[in-house]
Design a protein that fits this description.
Layout lengths: L2 H5 L1 E6 L2 E6 L3 E7 L2 E7 L5 E7 L5 H15 L4 E4 L3 E2 L2 E2 L1 E9 L2 E11 L4 E9 H16 L2 E2 H4 L2
Antiparallel strand pairs: 1-2, 2-12, 3-4, 4-5, 5-11, 6-9, 7-8, 9-10, 10-11
Length: 152
């Protein structure tokens, strides 16, 4: 993260997960059935989220479901495979570009599966915010730690 953001980092710790996020961003947590969704938002148009799936679906299925949702919502959604990691593990990851309300947007989805749960990290922003936020989003994703893995 840039030097300004580093000073303002806070740690989230819960549900067996830890990650860093800019402390001035709004953080929310909600249950969606058995799943937990934690969202950090800088404003109304960009966000980062982590979804915890206790049922452990395969990472490939999670990513395919996300891609299908973007395809269903946006006529011009285009995805490409990218290399990202979660908790030090190579994840199934895609970058998605699409337009909404005449604005170009970028999203990235990454997923891993471990014995305790599957995780989905997703961030999204308009392209005019991308230069300032992409590094922050990616560092947030890289900072995810699955606490049970620290015991091994």
């Amino acid at each position: 993260m840039n030097q300004e953001a580093e000073v303002l980092l806070q740690e989230y710790c819960g549900h067996g997960i830890r990650f860093l996020y800019p402390g001035f961003w709004e953080l929310s947590e909600e249950a969606d059935g058995e799943d937990i969704v934690i969202t950090a938002a800088a404003d109304q148009s960009c966000f980062w989220l982590l979804r915890i799936f206790p049922a452990c679906p395969p990472a490939e299925h999670i990513i395919e479901s996300c891609l299908q949702a973007y395809d269903d919502e946006y006529d011009d959604a285009e995805a490409e495979t990218v290399q990202l990691s979660i908790s030090g593990m190579t994840s199934q990851s895609r970058r998605i570009r699409f337009s909404c309300f005449e604005l170009l947007n970028t999203a990235a989805v990454s997923s891993v599966r471990v014995s305790e749960a599957s995780l989905l990290s997703l961030w999204q922003c308009t392209d005019h915010e991308l230069e300032n936020l992409e590094n922050i989003f990616e560092q947030m994703t890289r900072s995810i730690t699955i606490l049970s893995l620290l015991d091994d």
